[in-house]
Amino acid sequence: MYRLRFIKPFLKAYKWHYLFGLFWLLLVNIMQLIIPRILGSVSDGLAEGILDSSGLLRYVGIILAFALVIVISRFMWRIYIIGTSRRLEYFLRNRLVEHLQKLSPEYFNHHKTGDLMAHATNDINAIRMAFGPGIIMITDALVISIITIFLMINQVGWQLTLIALIPLPFLATGAGFFGKVIHKRFKNVQEAFSNLTDKVQENLSGIRVVKAFVQEQAEIKKFNEASQHHVNMNMRLIVIWGALFPLIQVIATLSMVLILFFGGRAVISGRISIGDFVAFNSYLGLMIWPMMAIGWVINVIQRGTASLDRVNEILSEKPDITDAKDAVELDIQGEIEFKNLTFEYVKGIPVLKNINLKIEKGKTLAIIGRTGSGKTTLVNLLLRMANPPKGTLFIDGVDINKIKLRSLRENIGYVPQDNFLFSTTIEENIAFGLKDYTFEQVEEVAKIAQVYDNIMDFPDKFGTILGERGVTLSGGQKQRVSIARAIIKEPAILILDDSLSAVDTHTEEEILKGLKKIMASRTSIIISHRVSTVKEADEIIVMDDGEIVERGTHEELVAQGGLYYQLHIKQLLEEKVNMA
Ligand SMILES: Nc1ncnc2c1ncn2[C@@H]1O[C@H](COP(=O)(O)OP(=O)(O)OP(=O)(O)O)[C@@H](O)[C@H]1O
């Protein structure tokens, strides 16, 4: 029952739906079981010559009435059981996606998107099958076989019933064995499929890299291999399914043959009537379906439980970045302080070492440094995309771990290095997550970010829909839309992580000029590789291998003649060469 812990609330809320559905299902079963008895009586009546036309018509009327009730009942159980299983699918998928949203970026570094997509599709589908068709099959199989056996004994005695049922234990063990193999092979198919999804997803997201490195053929080959593996795994599953059904058929036929022989002899010797024989045969016919269902239902339930285990595993994953119990809502002013901050993603490998830094409210800090020196990690901690150690990072004097995540992130305007844009309109991308905004605001921030004119050149202007990852925009345009998205929030803290790298120095200057007004009243952090981007900042820090190695204003750092100075000279030379 522990397995059901996450879907318990749903099952509780919908128990009456299931019970109501089961009621109709049982009604169908009972009706189906009575019909053979009626057929038996008709046969006897006909054989004994005591049935006239009006009597026959009465029986026809009864069977028709039964058929009508069966039609209505089937409709009802389908609505109530299959319908409820579809609601379960909806409930579980929403719960899963909601939970995934709460997990930290680190979780997604360690779990493939393709796998997670497979959980959200295949696994949830398998759970739905278990809680819809699976429940129907089990009920059918149990109710029909138990009542049928009882009726068979009642009709022709236990000896003949026993003979008819001899093949059944073989069927049960055979189905059990096949169920196990099917489950294993199905798992392999699932894994192969997840691998396939992953490949497609990576290939489409990375299409530019694939093309630029002329790797189309190599990628197609890799995909074909994965695809072939998926087919092979499916073939192995088909083989076992293919063997299962004939086996069930053989066993069912064996029962029929036994009954034909022994039942026929009983009729000849007069121990049972022809009517009994007909009814008994119909009962046996009714038993075949549940028998066949056994093999199928074992598979469905096994798949369902395996899928439920996988989904449970994700749902049990505790989000590691959450609000502390005593977290406070903070109207952030923008003072930031790092105190002796040392941070490591992997134990024993510090990426930031002993960082001491204070940024006064409204000031601008620029960070420059080699790639991998820890610049992005610094802002990741500020956004709490990772947890900084206690007592090392403060905003307005409050330990960042004690600030409610929502109030922290709502007060930070962040332009990430990877400018992800959604496949929606430019306007919606800029106003992302804002409930109240005016179109004028969108236009204004687009102007500040120097992307307004570009947008107005598109036929649909702000209504232009962007492709996946904003493919209709150039790298620089994407960066500027991202900047507009960050500043429309009017955040207390603005962070630009290498956000001007794809624009030329002239546009950069224009953007910085536009941002100056915005930044005057906000605390800003600008990360860049370019001296031209950072030189106006109130303080510049130079990072190297997780440490602050130089700090000061542009003039001070140039005067120091260190790393910053060398970078400055190198970039000045580059500019001159470019202009020449
Ligand atoms: N999630 C992570 N898990 C483990 N190590 C990480 C993780 N993210 C970054 N790192 C490592 O931390 C170090 C600092 O990375 P970071 O992204 O902060 O550098 P950066 O200065 O921003 O580089 P760039 O200028 O290239 O963006 C690198 O050595 C990187 O490999």
TrEMBL record:
CDD domains linked to this entry: ABC_6TM_TmrB_like
Ranges of residues in domain ABC transmembrane type-1: 19-303
Domain ABC transporter: 336-570
Localization terms from the record: Cell membrane
PROSITE patterns listed in its UniProt record: ABC_TM1F, ABC_TRANSPORTER_1, ABC_TRANSPORTER_2
Gene3D superfamilies listed in its UniProt record: ABC transporter type 1, transmembrane domain (1.20.1560.10), P-loop containing nucleotide triphosphate hydrolases (3.40.50.300)
Transmembrane segments: 16-36, 56-77, 134-153, 159-178, 237-262, 282-301
SUPFAM superfamilies in the cross-refs: ABC transporter transmembrane region (SSF90123), P-loop containing nucleoside triphosphate hydrolases (SSF52540)
Membrane topology field: Multi-pass membrane protein
Protein name, per record: ATP-binding cassette, subfamily B
